[in-house]
Amino acid sequence: MLATSLSCRSATPRAGAGSPGFGQAARDQANSGSSDDAVAVAEPVPAAAREPMPAPAPVDGGCVSPVELQEAAWDLANVRFRARSTEQLAANGEALLDRAARALRGYPDVAVTLRMRCDERSAPMNPDVCELKRGHHLREALIRRAVEPDRVHVLGAGDGRAIAAQGDRAGRAVNEIIEVSLDPHMFDGSPPTCVTPLALQQLQWQLRLLRFASDTTLAGHPDGALDRAARVLSEHADVAVELRVYCDRSTASSERVAVTRRRGEHVRELLVQRGIAAERIRVAAGGDGKPVVASGTAEARAVNERIEAVLVGFP
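Predicted structure:
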């Protein structure tokens, strides 16, 4: 990742143009070279539904990206392709791209890298080729939405970075989640936008890997992701994290907010057990308010039930 500037401008977007990346070497490499029903793409969790968060602030080794950019990164991460396609998006994909591009245009000094994944058991071709084809399709979609070409970079994660080991549809869906990161981008010499240091962006990704097998039981082997997340938080004591927790609409409507709150509080408690102060971890119970794909399948549930971590400065 490029060295993050310690000089941070305000989170007010610049008129006209923004969001995620992995560094100059990654960008050099990138530059070389089942059908879903329509889903309403909800806006981020309203303020009334979550505890107040402090404004973005400088942190050790850099500063935290504006929340708008972090939300754009999650929107891009949630874009889904139809089964065995490298061009057709799930029904809500265009809306997610619209919202992400709108945020990115406001920050012309921030670049975005899309680290793509294709599960080898469902890819329409060699997974490496599939990843790059899908990534370049998204890159072109952002360029059409007036995001500058040199600010959007594509990498393949390779099947060796698989998230879920199981070969069912739910496991394949999880393995195709896009990993998005933000980098500084040369612009006009003005004070740069805050860009979250790479270690903290990886913290967000570790928390995204957590999955629930039941109400508050984490699936698989979550200790590694939790340990890594806690280690990064302990090294950045001036950062707080908001856990935006979502569930699938297969959960009873009367229980969705309560379920997501219990899950968020469970993850908070696991981080507290690892030495993180409870007041640095906020929980926003999103219920089913921001589905990635239409409900009704194990695949949909696997991607709709998730945690999106948003970072802010901690006084």
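Summary: The chain is about 35% helix and 15% strand.
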